[in-house]
Amino acid sequence: MASSPGQGEGNDPPYWLSQAAREPNVGIPSVPVLHDKRVSRIDKISHYLSGQSSIFQTLMDLRVEGSQHPDKERFFNTMKIIGREIQSATSFFSIPPHNGRLPLRILDMGMAPGAFLQLAMEENPDAMAHAFSLPVENGGLEVQVALDSNAVTIELVDVNMLAVDLGVDVIPQYHPDANKFSPRKLYPHDTFHLAICDAQVPSSNVQDAYRKRYEQTRLMYAQLAIALDHMGVGGSMLVFIHKIEAWDSIMLIRSFCMFSDVKLFKPTKVHAKRSSCYMIATNIQPKHEEAIKSVNSWKQLWRTATFDTETMFNSLFESQNPSVPDVLEDFGPMLAILGNEAWEVQANALESWLEEIC
Questions:
Q1: What sequence ranges are listed for the domain Ribosomal RNA methyltransferase FtsJ (predicted)?
Q2: Angle 125-234-104 (CA atoms, 0-180°, nearest 5)?
């Protein structure tokens, strides 16, 4: 249900709303205030050293540039390897027959460099796709694949700014990014058979202090809510998981287990030593009570993290989460079964690596 962010709740102002933003004749500071307790230690130290040393400032600029411009060909090839391994083990990218209803439709919430979508289109040559990708000027990666423009619609947009698609029709004009939110991109009739949710926040895209704390959290909720909200019955989703045993990951996996078939897959050829893996959800039932509840919850969390106070977000987050003992009693055994294969891949990779360096 569409809404506009409320005001006057809680005792503290929105975490993004500085004193400067509340005073009409004062601009919002472009750098963190050193005595602001909401700013992290590393931000304060970097701010100080940048003012004291031009060499340090140059180094900081190069770090950002380097983080956003890795070896493009190598990264693209890495993603192709991961995609092919996922396909070989799970056939995820092959959309099963849907009673002859065409066209098959694919949604990619974070396309660049494009390896996963390219593979999905190769496996489903008659499919149509809608893809979002963060613009390069905002820190996004370059799209490195050439796809048929008649079959694939690519929108260069920040998924975290899709307010209307996330249920917010009215943007507060005093918000620092009030003019940056995007109009609606998807409509209720837009449904998809397969969705890819592996968008990540590049460091150079989080320049404002007010966005740093919740940017990745907001992106996670945004892409999950939009993808599941537009998922067709029996569809599939691929979701990047940073660490299986992290609380957000557990709650995400637990939710999907209530309305889909879930498998956790960890590549063995690349990134084996890392804690990350992919959740593959198939046979999704988007009209299931728990699926609808999840979409509404993610939208609400995104709205609160975007427009309200840190206190309000923390309160909402806690109210929507059961206790750790209750979750482990209810879902712990299933989590262990789902996670064992991925944990074994990482354990073997780390063991081999330690043997090599010792």
A1: 102-283
A2: 20
Q: For the segment 284-324, what is each residue's pLDDT rounded down to a tens digit?
A: 999 999 999 999 999 999 999 999 988 999 999 999 999 99
Describe the strand order of the beta sheet including 192-197 as a list of residue ranges.
152-156, 128-133, 105-108, 192-197, 231-241, 277-284, 261-265
- Tokens representing 273 are 């030593």
C-alpha span between 90 and 82 (Å, rounded): 12
State how far the Cα of 309 lies from the Cα of 26, in Å rounded to an integer: 21
Quote the percentage of the chain above a pLDDT of 70. Answer: 78
Residues 235-259 have pLDDT tens digits of: 999 999 999 999 999 999 999 999 9
Relative to beta strand 277-284, strand 231-241 is antiparallel
The stretches of 202-323 forming alpha helices (DSSP H) are: 209-212, 215-229, 247-257, 289-307, 310-319
* Of the candidates 274, 244, 280, the residue with the CA atom closest to the CA atom of residue 345: 274
| Spatial separation of the C-alpha atoms in residues 171 and 202, rounded to whole Å | 25
The structure tokens 């390896």 sit at 115
In order of 47, 127, 252, the CA distances from 106 in angstroms are: 43, 7, 22
Q: Across residues 206-227, what is the average pLDDT? A: 86
Rounded distance, CA 279 to CA 271, Å? 15
Query: What is the separation of C-alpha 315 from the centre of its chain, rounded to a whole number of angstroms?
Result: 22
Omega of the bond prior to 103 within 30 degrees of 0, cis? yes
Distance, in Å, from the CA atom of 174 to the CA atom of 296, rounded to the nearest integer, reads: 25
Do the beta carbons of residue 16 and residue 176 sit within 8 Å? yes
> In this structure, are residues 309 and 7 in contact, taking their beta carbons and an 8 Å threshold?
no
Side chain identity at 213, as an amino acid letter? R
Q: What angle do CA 41, 247, 258 make, to 5 degrees?
A: 150
Find out whether 217 and 199 touch, Cβ atoms under 8 Å: no
Q: 3-class SS at 89?
A: helix
| Interatomic CA distance for residues 284 and 259, integer angstroms | 6
Closest of 232, 237, 132 to residue 188, by C-alpha = 232
Q: Give the chain's length.
A: 358
